[in-house]
Design brief:
By secondary structure, the protein is of the alpha/beta class. Helices cover about 45% and strands about 10% of the residues. The chain has one domain. The longest helix has 18 residues.
Length: about 180
């Protein structure tokens, strides 16, 4: 199914095919609302993290200004350079920073897959979404993923009502030590 650009939606820009498969695995997680499949669009692999950033700068920035419900997830390999996160954030317009998120494996997905015992990239994506509300869980706490903790919390606060059932929102509020607010 495709997304409606006039309604709140998440666009995921993967750096490469491994990251695209991780994103695809996210769509199968039972914690997602059934309507989530029409609120998420996974774009084709960009061909490198710099091309993901280039896509943001050349076309997505204008589109995000036109569609205020658009949330962008840049799914990249950090290639061992955590400073890449700050470098990418500097390229995002201040007016869009609350809607742009950068996530990825500290090295590359291939290394993560081998360190967690093989399996498919889609299974990794599925597990990440299933564990997403608890960023201290096993996979999110893996040395190659734990650098995403703050970005995941930021993302979850933004997309929870759109993609997840209400009980997940209460769990996030508890994790962040904030008073629980019932959704409208």
């Amino acid at each position: 199914m495709s997304y409606n650009k006039y309604k709140p939606h998440v666009m995921i820009y993967p750096e490469d095919d491994a990251n695209r498969e991780i994103a695809n695995g996210c769509l199968f997680a039972p914690r997602l609302k059934p309507s989530a499949s029409t609120a998420i669009q996974i774009m084709p692999p960009a061909g490198g993290w710099m091309k993901v950033v280039e896509k943001l700068e050349t076309s997505e920035e204008q589109a995000m200004n036109r569609y205020p419900g658009r949330i962008l997830v840049l799914l990249i390999d950090f290639d061992g350079r955590i400073s890449r996160l700050d470098r990418i954030r500097q390229k995002v317009s201040e007016s869009l920073r609350e809607r742009v998120f950068v996530l990825g494996v500290l090295s590359e997905p291939e290394k993560l897959r081998s360190m967690v015992g093989g399996g498919s990239y889609e299974k990794i994506g599925y597990t990440l979404v299933e564990e997403c509300p608890d960023s201290l869980s096993d996979l999110w706490n893996h040395p190659l993923l734990r650098h995403n903790r703050d970005e995941v919390r930021r993302l979850m606060a933004r997309v929870n009502r759109l993609l997840f059932d209400c009980w997940v929102l209460r769990h996030i509020w508890a994790m962040m030590k904030m008073p629980c607010k019932q959704p409208n």
